[in-house]
Amino acid sequence: MTPATASLHISRLAFAYPDGHQALFGVDLTVARGERVALLGPNGAGKTTLVLHLNGILGGGAGEVHIAGLPVGRPHLAEIRRRVGIVFQDPDDQLFMPTVRDDVAFGPAGAGLRGDALDARVTAALDRVGMAGYADRPPHHLSFGQRRRVALATVLVMEPEILVLDEPSSNLDPAARRELADILRSLPVTVLMVTHDLPYAMELCPRSVILSGGVIVADGPTRELLTDAELLHRHRLELPYGFDPAAAVRTVRPR
After folding, report:
1. Helix, strand, coil percentages in the chain from 3-state DSSP, rounded to 5
2. Where are the strands (E) in the chain, listed by range?
3. Which residue stretches, if any, does this entry annotate as coiled coil (predicted)?
4. Long-range contacts made by residues 142-146, C-beta under 8 angstroms, separation at least 24?
5. Is 174:193 a contact under the CB 8 Å cutoff?
6. How far apart are the C-alpha atoms of 172 and 206, rounded to whole Å?
7. Nearest CA-CA partner of 39 in 167, 187, 174, 223
8. Which of 193, 208, 212, 235 is nearest to 27 (CA)?
């Protein structure tokens, strides 16, 4: 697979913050179009630093990042930021307009979409996350799980190449967790999911990457990585008590 054919291609990415803290030490990672990959690792591993390089928020280090064949850099920055959609852990960081419809329309309207084309794009994004019936509601009147789905819609409406999810299952009740999993499985996009929720990673992502100490220390099938108790212990990753990844079976909620 080449940078031109992959959704994401990172080569020898290294980065140090102005205070001298070295966060990444030569990361190599390639993600194919349509893959769903979990990015695992302890706090301080460099996961956020890596993610912020994907849309050019951070830069200036060594190495290269390509999104759908485009190098991340100033000449392509607007297109890169359209192609990389980041859904934050707290949906309130993304929702700030008077209504759900206004929030979802904000991005494409800013890109110049108007009229029926804008309405159709917003409706399609809300349909995709099961929130079309809430378009005229104020976001702060919604449940946390509903707000997370609206935040997802604000990203999907831009038709991204890569969807980056920061701890998508956090603070969700079991029903909302299952509903979000069904939505994420249905999306025809590449997914990079940053999470400490190892069972959710196994449910949604056939492949996982462990980032620890600024380097990738493991990359392979999620089930195989999660059954390596010594690997998990060495990199401060823990499965919930009683959860056996070797015996777990992925379930899909009936529609």
Report:
1. 40, 25, 40
2. 6-16, 22-32, 36-40, 62-67, 70-71, 84-87, 162-166, 190-194, 207-212, 215-221
3. none
4. 142/100, 143/176, 144/91, 144/171, 144/172, 144/176, 145/172, 145/173, 145/175, 145/176, 145/179, 145/180
5. no
6. 22
7. 167
8. 212
Contact yes or no for 190/8 (Cβ under 8 A): yes
Residues in contact with 85: Cβ distance below 8 Å, sequence separation at least 6, in sequence order: 155, 156, 158, 160, 162, 163, 164
Give the per-residue pLDDT at 74: 87
What pLDDT does 253 receive? 46
Q: What averages of pLDDT result for each successive group of 10 residues across the chain (255 residues)?
A: 82 95 96 97 94 91 93 91 93 94 96 95 96 96 96 96 96 94 94 96 97 97 96 95 76 45
Phi, psi angles (nearest 5°) of residue 154: -65, -25
Q: What is the DSSP letter of 91?
A: G
Please tell me the predicted confidence (pLDDT) of residue 254.
43
**What tokens does 151 get?**
């935040």
3-state secondary structure of 204: helix
Does the global pTM surpass 0.70? yes
CA–CA gap between residue 233 and residue 238 (Å, rounded): 7
CA-wise closest residue to 176 among 151, 209, 213, 155: 151
Domain ranges for the chain? 6-234
